[in-house]
Amino acid sequence: MAETLDGSAYPQITRFTLGGSDVATQVVVPPTARTATVRFESNDGKLSFAGTDGGAINAAYIICAGDTTNEFSLLDGLGVSKGVTSFFVAASTGSTVCSIMIEG
After folding, report:
1. Strand ranges, E, within the chain
2. Which residues are CB-neighbours of 13 under 8 A, at least 6 positions away?
3. What's the CA gap between 68 and 30, in Å, rounded?
4. What is the per-residue DSSP string for 76-94?
5. How far from each other are the two terminal CA atoms of the chain, in whole angstroms?
6. pTM for the complete prediction?
7. Mean pLDDT of the region 21-29
């Protein structure tokens, strides 16, 4: 099920447990978000910018090592939103906890 961060206050954090193996969870972010940080606890995770919530993770993903933070910008060189309104996370190991932090 999709996780939505509304940007009502920054930084904003959500933690949730991922479902089955390689099942994508959509993370919806507000257009005012400037950066996102993703962390998978104990197990490696996958991050993609394309997909369907509840479907298999898209083949175009990067692997994020477990217990490491992975930060990325949502802005272009002029400090303007690139139009990224969501991304997708998954893990090969079910019941992996995922933490997301956005900053504005």
Report:
1. 3-4, 12-17, 25-28, 35-40, 45-48, 62-64, 69-73, 86-91, 97-103
2. 99, 100, 101
3. 24
4. -TTS-B-S--EEEEEESST
5. 24
6. 0.92
7. 95
Tokens describing residue 17: 């447990």
Q: Please state whether 49 falls in left (phi above 0), alpha (psi between -120 and 50) or beta.
A: alpha
Quick one: pLDDT at residue 104? 86
**Strand pairing report for 25-28 and 3-4:** parallel
Rounded alpha-carbon distances, angstroms, from residue 21 to 25, 29, 71, 73, 94: 11, 24, 23, 27, 5
Residue 74 buriedness (CB in 10 A; 0-12 / 13-18 / 19+): buried
Q: Is residue 58 within 8 Å of 50, Cβ to Cβ?
A: yes
Read off the pLDDT of residues 26-77 as tens digits, 9 standing for 90 and up: 999 998 888 999 999 999 999 999 999 999 999 999 999 999 999 998 876 6
8 A C-beta contact, residue 29 and residue 102: yes
The closest of 52, 59, 60 to 25, measured between CA atoms, is 52
